[in-house]
Protein backbone atom coordinates (compact mmCIF):
# COMPACT_ATOMS: atom_id res chain seq x y z
CA UNK A 1 0.00 0.00 0.00
CA UNK A 2 2.82 2.42 0.91
CA UNK A 3 4.56 1.62 -2.38
CA UNK A 4 1.38 2.43 -4.35
CA UNK A 5 0.95 5.74 -2.53
CA UNK A 6 4.62 6.58 -3.09
CA UNK A 7 4.32 5.79 -6.81
CA UNK A 8 1.07 7.75 -7.08
CA UNK A 9 2.74 10.72 -5.38
CA UNK A 10 5.63 10.68 -7.86
CA UNK A 11 3.28 10.41 -10.82
CA UNK A 12 1.23 13.34 -9.54
CA UNK A 13 4.40 15.39 -9.05
CA UNK A 14 5.54 14.65 -12.60
CA UNK A 15 2.12 15.50 -13.99
CA UNK A 16 1.82 18.77 -12.06
CA UNK A 17 5.42 19.93 -12.62
CA UNK A 18 5.72 18.74 -16.19
CA UNK A 19 8.88 17.65 -17.91
CA UNK A 20 11.48 20.33 -18.56
CA UNK A 21 12.78 18.51 -21.65
CA UNK A 22 9.52 18.90 -23.58
CA UNK A 23 9.93 21.62 -26.25
CA UNK A 24 7.12 24.13 -26.50
CA UNK A 25 6.08 25.29 -29.98
CA UNK A 26 6.61 29.04 -30.48
CA UNK A 27 9.23 29.40 -27.74
CA UNK A 28 12.69 30.63 -28.87
CA UNK A 29 15.39 28.04 -28.11
CA UNK A 30 18.88 27.01 -29.29
CA UNK A 31 19.01 24.97 -32.53
CA UNK A 32 18.22 21.26 -32.17
CA UNK A 33 16.95 20.46 -35.68
CA UNK A 34 13.20 21.13 -35.58
CA UNK A 35 13.22 24.92 -35.72
CA UNK A 36 12.32 27.64 -38.17
CA UNK A 37 13.98 31.05 -37.95
CA UNK A 38 12.01 34.27 -37.58
CA UNK A 39 13.76 37.61 -37.09
CA UNK A 40 16.97 35.75 -36.25
CA UNK A 41 15.47 33.57 -33.49
CA UNK A 42 14.80 29.83 -33.50
CA UNK A 43 11.27 28.50 -32.90
CA UNK A 44 10.48 24.83 -32.43
CA UNK A 45 7.98 23.28 -34.83
CA UNK A 46 7.92 19.70 -33.56
CA UNK A 47 9.07 18.27 -36.92
CA UNK A 48 12.51 18.06 -38.58
CA UNK A 49 13.49 21.22 -40.49
CA UNK A 50 16.47 21.81 -42.82
CA UNK A 51 17.60 25.43 -42.80
CA UNK A 52 19.87 27.26 -45.25
CA UNK A 53 22.64 27.04 -42.65
CA UNK A 54 22.44 23.23 -42.45
CA UNK A 55 24.45 20.92 -44.71
CA UNK A 56 22.39 20.47 -47.88
CA UNK A 57 20.14 23.40 -46.98
CA UNK A 58 19.00 25.82 -49.67
CA UNK A 59 19.93 29.50 -49.35
CA UNK A 60 17.68 31.55 -51.63
CA UNK A 61 19.84 34.65 -51.13
CA UNK A 62 22.92 33.14 -52.79
CA UNK A 63 23.87 34.70 -56.10
CA UNK A 64 24.94 31.50 -57.85
CA UNK A 65 22.28 29.24 -59.32
CA UNK A 66 21.73 26.18 -57.17
CA UNK A 67 20.29 23.88 -59.85
CA UNK A 68 22.78 24.58 -62.63
CA UNK A 69 26.07 22.73 -63.15
CA UNK A 70 28.69 24.18 -60.77
CA UNK A 71 30.87 25.42 -63.64
CA UNK A 72 27.94 27.47 -65.02
CA UNK A 73 26.33 28.57 -61.75
CA UNK A 74 28.27 31.78 -61.01
CA UNK A 75 26.76 35.23 -61.60
CA UNK A 76 28.69 36.07 -64.80
CA UNK A 77 27.69 32.80 -66.52
CA UNK A 78 24.14 33.12 -65.25
CA UNK A 79 23.62 36.56 -66.82
CA UNK A 80 24.79 35.20 -70.18
CA UNK A 81 22.71 32.00 -70.04
CA UNK A 82 19.55 33.55 -68.55
CA UNK A 83 18.84 36.68 -70.62
CA UNK A 84 16.12 38.17 -68.36
CA UNK A 85 18.26 37.91 -65.22
CA UNK A 86 19.10 41.51 -64.24
CA UNK A 87 19.86 41.40 -60.52
CA UNK A 88 21.02 38.78 -58.02
CA UNK A 89 18.60 40.14 -55.41
CA UNK A 90 15.70 37.77 -55.07
CA UNK A 91 13.76 39.44 -52.26
CA UNK A 92 12.95 43.06 -51.56
CA UNK A 93 13.33 44.84 -48.23
CA UNK A 94 9.55 45.45 -47.95
CA UNK A 95 10.24 49.00 -46.85
CA UNK A 96 6.80 50.45 -47.61
CA UNK A 97 5.78 50.99 -43.96
CA UNK A 98 9.26 51.58 -42.48
CA UNK A 99 10.83 54.87 -41.44
CA UNK A 100 14.20 55.91 -42.91
CA UNK A 101 15.97 54.89 -39.68
CA UNK A 102 14.22 51.50 -39.63
CA UNK A 103 15.18 50.88 -43.26
CA UNK A 104 18.86 51.50 -42.47
CA UNK A 105 18.74 49.32 -39.35
CA UNK A 106 16.95 46.42 -41.08
CA UNK A 107 19.15 46.71 -44.17
CA UNK A 108 22.31 46.50 -42.06
CA UNK A 109 21.31 43.97 -39.43
CA UNK A 110 18.10 42.20 -40.35
CA UNK A 111 14.61 42.27 -38.91
CA UNK A 112 13.88 42.16 -35.18
CA UNK A 113 10.58 41.18 -33.59
CA UNK A 114 9.57 44.74 -32.69
CA UNK A 115 9.86 45.87 -36.31
CA UNK A 116 8.10 42.76 -37.64
CA UNK A 117 5.26 43.21 -35.15
CA UNK A 118 4.89 46.89 -36.13
CA UNK A 119 4.24 45.86 -39.75
CA UNK A 120 1.07 43.91 -38.91
What does this 3D model show about the protein?
There is one protein chain. The mean pLDDT is 76. The protein has 120 residues and is mainly alpha-helical. Helices cover 32% and strands 7% of the residues. The chain has 4 helices and 2 strands. The chain is flat, with a radius of gyration of 24 Å. Strands 1-2 form a two-stranded antiparallel sheet. The protein has helices at residues 2-17, 75-81, 100-109, 113-118, and strands at residues 35-38, 41-44. Strand 1 and strand 2 form a beta hairpin.
Rounded mean pLDDT score = 76
Order of SSEs: HEEHHH
The low-confidence parts are none
End-to-end CA span: 59 Å
Shape: flat
The tally of strands reads: 2
Compute the gyration radius: what is it? 24 Å
- Main structural class: mainly alpha
Helix tally equals: 4
Report the portion of residues in β strands.
5-15%
Question: Into which percent range does the helicity of residues fall?
Answer: 25-40%
What kind of sheet is the major sheet? 2 strands, antiparallel
Strand order of the largest sheet: 1-2
Spell out the key features of this protein.
2 strands, 32% helix, 120 residues, mainly alpha, two-stranded antiparallel ribbon
Chain-wise SSE layout:
Elements: H1 2-17, E1 35-38, E2 41-44, H2 75-81, H3 100-109, H4 113-118
Antiparallel strand pairs: 1-2
